[in-house]
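Reminder to self: C-alpha cells first, then the designed residues, so the page reads top to bottom the way the pipeline ran.
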C-alpha cells in the first residue's frame, strides 16, 4: 500500500491536496455570499444572515462574533463601521454558521439514500516535470456512498479530519490511491 507523499513538488509537479479540493467544492455548493465583507452590501448580507433569528444570533456568538446587540444595530443602520478585525470575525462567523446550516442538506443530497455521488478526480499537473520523471496518472472517477465523515469534518472546519475522511474514501481506488493525494481538481454535484 502506498504511503503519503513526502516531498510533493520536488521535480515540478503542481496541485493541491485532495481534501482541499473537496472543501472548495463543498464551499461552492454551500452558496456563500459572493460580495466581499469589505463592501457594505456584503457586510449587510452577512449580518442579516447572522441576526435574523434568535437561533442565528446564538450560533453567531458561538462561532466567535461577540459584539453587543447595540453595536450590531449600529452596523446595520450604517452609523458605525466595523474594524478590520471585526470584519474578519463577521466573515468567520458567517462561514461557520452557513456551513453548519447547509451540512445536513448537503449530506442528504450527496448520500442520495445510499446511492452516493460520482466524484471525478483530475490528477496533478506534471507539465513542469522533466519527461523521464513524469508518471502516467489518469483521470479517475469513483462513487462515494458515505459522505458523513467528509461533510462533518468540512462543517467543523477540521482539516486533519477532512484529510483522513477523504483518504479513507480514495483507498477504494486500489493500490493507486497514493497517486491521487494531490490533484488539480475534484468535481462532483449535489
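Designed residues (190 positions):
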Amino acid at each position: 500500500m502506498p504511503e503519503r507523499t513526502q516531498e510533493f513538488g520536488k521535480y515540478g509537479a503542481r496541485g493541491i491536496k485532495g481534501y482541499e479540493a473537496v472543501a472548495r467544492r463543498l464551499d461552492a455548493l454551500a452558496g456563500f455570499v459572493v460580495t466581499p465583507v469589505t463592501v457594505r452590501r456584503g457586510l449587510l448580507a452577512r449580518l442579516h444572515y447572522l441576526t435574523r433569528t434568535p437561533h442565528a444570533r446564538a450560533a453567531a456568538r458561538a462561532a466567535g462574533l461577540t459584539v453587543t446587540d447595540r453595536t450590531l444595530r449600529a452596523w446595520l443602520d450604517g452609523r458605525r463601521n466595523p474594524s478590520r478585525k471585526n470584519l474578519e470575525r463577521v466573515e468567520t462567523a458567517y462561514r461557520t454558521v452557513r456551513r453548519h446550516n447547509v451540512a445536513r442538506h448537503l449530506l442528504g443530497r450527496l448520500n442520495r439514500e445510499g446511492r452516493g455521488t460520482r466524484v471525478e478526480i483530475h490528477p496533478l499537473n506534471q507539465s513542469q516535470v522533466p519527461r523521464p520523471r513524469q508518471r502516467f496518472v489518469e483521470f479517475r472517477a469513483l462513487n462515494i456512498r458515505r459522505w458523513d465523515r467528509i461533510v462533518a469534518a468540512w462543517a467543523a472546519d477540521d482539516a486533519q479530519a477532512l484529510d483522513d475522511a477523504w483518504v479513507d474514501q480514495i483507498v477504494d481506488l486500489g493500490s493507486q490511491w497514493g497517486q491521487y493525494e494531490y490533484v488539480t481538481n475534484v468535481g462532483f454535484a449535489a
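Residues 65 and 89 are 6 Å apart (CA to CA).
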